[in-house]
Specification:
With about 375 residues, the chain is an alpha+beta fold. It folds into two domains: about 230 residues, Metallo-beta-lactamase, Chain A (4-Layer Sandwich); about 60 residues, Arc Repressor Mutant, subunit A (Orthogonal Bundle). It has nine helices and 17 strands. The protein has a seven-stranded mixed beta sheet. It has a five-stranded mixed beta sheet with strand order 9-10-11-12-14, with no helix packed on it. The chain is globular and about 65 Å long. The two termini are about 35 Å apart.
């Protein structure tokens, strides 16, 4: 899941709805798009990597028949059936990236590969992180009455910084309930057959790919680097026009610091000619784009520093309103604000306190 940037907004390729076409974007690597209905996103790129055994898929989409039926159509378009899938690679533990993996394993015996720290968003600490929140709901929603729907994988109703979690909108609730009714096993934890780690090599598309551990967006995020053809599969780590969500609810003590480190590491991989992101179009300027994202978050930190000098004992919501446009106020924006505040607290630039059950921050 990723957050929007400020208005006015140029065209964001990550928002485009999923197309039916399957195109070759690198030797032996096909780009297909699966439908996604999440804030700021219209599709997830599911890459098909061809070899003598059939095909491996990278990030097989959301749980549910809509996404999975689209995956089957894309495979047919590329000349494959679902039975030809031998591996499902998951770049990180968010629903739109691993939702179809278990179904592939059940139907085809596909091996599921992810980082050794992989865990789904509703497990451990990350169960407290917002999963989906439509924009209209982020602006206030329908309250928290008897009809409020908190999905079973994310039932937390109070954020760690004290504000009340918003339930899903009626439209989103209806969609997820339908998926669950279709088959509750859609939401089973994927069984990882192979946990890979930093610098481990995995063979896909008839060549070796290097696992690059890039914590930040999630602790278990990986990129895959192909030095032979200069290809980097970046998942949500580096996207072409929007910045990935950096949530403050994490097993990482300072996820923003980890994200900065992971972005700067992109310069260590020389000769990258094509970047294959999980959302949006392939692009080539990996190093420049990584630096842009660092500067974007450094700018947000500067906004918080200024705000901390102007308001005493500001809540996370107070700071959120300085960082984000009103159209995206809500749990995800609060969580990212919290991550930035905690980053500054760890650096000794702000101090944390409490007021009426809400966490506050002030300039040192």
């Amino acid at each position: 899941m990723v957050n929007d940037e400020y208005a006015p907004r140029p065209h964001r390729s990550e928002r485009e709805p999923a197309g039916e076409e399957v195109t070759e974007v690198a030797p032996g690597v096909l780009r297909s798009q699966l439908p996604v209905s999440l804030p700021g996103l219209g599709h997830v790129n599911c890459y098909l990597l061809e070899d003598e055994r059939g095909v491996a898929v990278v990030d097989p989409g959301l749980p549910g028949p809509v996404s999975f039926d689209a995956l089957k159509r894309r495979l047919r378009s590329a000349g494959y059936g679902i039975e030809n899938v031998h591996t499902a690679v998951i770049t990180h533990s968010h629903l739109d990236h691993f939702g179809g993996a278990n179904r592939l394993r059940t139907l085809t015996g596909a091996e599921i590969v992810a980082h050794e720290l992989f865990r789904p968003t509703w497990a451990a600490v990350e169960a407290k992180e917002p999963v989906e929140l439509p924009m209209a709901q982020a602006r206030g929603g329908s309250g928290d009455g008897d009809d409020a729907y908190y999905p079973p994988w994310n039932p937390i109703r109070t954020n760690p910084w004290g504000s009340r979690r918003r339930p899903l909108s009626s439209e989103a609730a209806k969609r997820w309930k339908a998926v669950e009714k279709d088959d509750p096993t859609w939401f089973q934890t994927p069984e990882i057959a192979k946990g890979i780690s930093e610098n481990e090599v995995i063979r896909l598309a008839r060549r070796d790919w290097l696992c690059v551990h890039t914590p930040g967006h999630t602790e278990d995020h990986i990129c895959l680097f192909d030095p032979d053809y200069g290809v980097m599969i970046t998942g949500d780590h580096v996207l072409p026009t929007i910045t990935p969500h950096i949530g403050g609810i994490s097993s990482q003590p300072d996820p923003l610091a980890n994200f900065f480190d992971s972005l700067r590491r992109m310069h260590d991989f020389k000769g990258v000619k094509v970047v294959l992101p999980a959302h949006g179009h392939p692009f080539s300027n990996l190093y420049e784009r990584s630096d842009e994202i660092v500067r974007h978050h450094e700018g947000r930190l500067e906004i918080i520093r200024t705000a901390a000098k102007e308001m005493e004992f500001g809540t996370v919501v107070d700071y959120m309103k300085r960082l984000f446009a009103e159209r995206v106020w809500g749990d995800l924006a609060e969580s990212e604000t919290y991550a930035h505040l905690e980053h500054l607290r760890a650096a000794g630039e702000v101090v944390a306190g409490s007021r009426s059950g809400l966490r506050t921050y002030s300039h040192c």
